[in-house]
Amino acid sequence: MDSERNHRTGESESKTHEEPKSETKKLKNLSEYAQTLQLAWNGLLVLKNSCFPTSMHILEGDLGVINGLLKDHSSGGKLTQLKIAQRLRLDQPKLDEVTRRIKQGSPNGYAVLLATQSTPAGAEGTFPVVEPGLQRRLLRNLVSYLKQKQAAGVISLPVGGAKGRDSTGMLYAFPPCEFSQQYLQSALRTLGKLEEEHMVIVIVKDTA
What we know:
Blueprint: H1 2-18, H2 30-35, E1 38-47, E2 50-61, H3 63-69, E3 81-83, E4 86-89, H4 92-105, E5 110-117, E6 135-136, H5 139-149, E7 151-157, E8 169-174, H6 178-181, H7 185-191, E9 199-205
Parallel strand pairs: 1-3, 2-6
Antiparallel strand pairs: 1-2, 2-5, 4-7, 5-9, 7-8, 8-9
């Protein structure tokens, strides 16, 4: 018995040694794909009395826009929660307007991010505190709500209104739709299909 078991552990050990060689190991899902991107924001998206722990990784655009517009003015740090107060119907004219704003904001007045379920693994300490009265739920519930409404969530930035010379902007949270898929072409090529619930977040700075 013992020799068999030892043989087995020996086998599994040799396997783990080989792992680092296969750097380009196949990514299984969108969360793994997101890990290959730069983390831009980790916090809670809030809708009504639910909050959704979310990680946002940058797909394209300027990180400075995110840092500038997602600032918490009272603490000077990054905001830990963003409240969705409006919806934008996913009609072509509305989407064209968002595309126009992205084009206007290029190259450094916009950012496109991939939002996935934030996992507490290894980041327990950095998990934002949920306010009393808010219920923590999975991001997929927010995604299915927006899908059902055929709408994107909209947040005016900066939260709490602009002070003085601050730049202002908008955040759009798109559920999976034709519009959002255009930003996920490389993810699609890598994974073959995007099964996991996710959102594409577009942040645009208002052009004066």
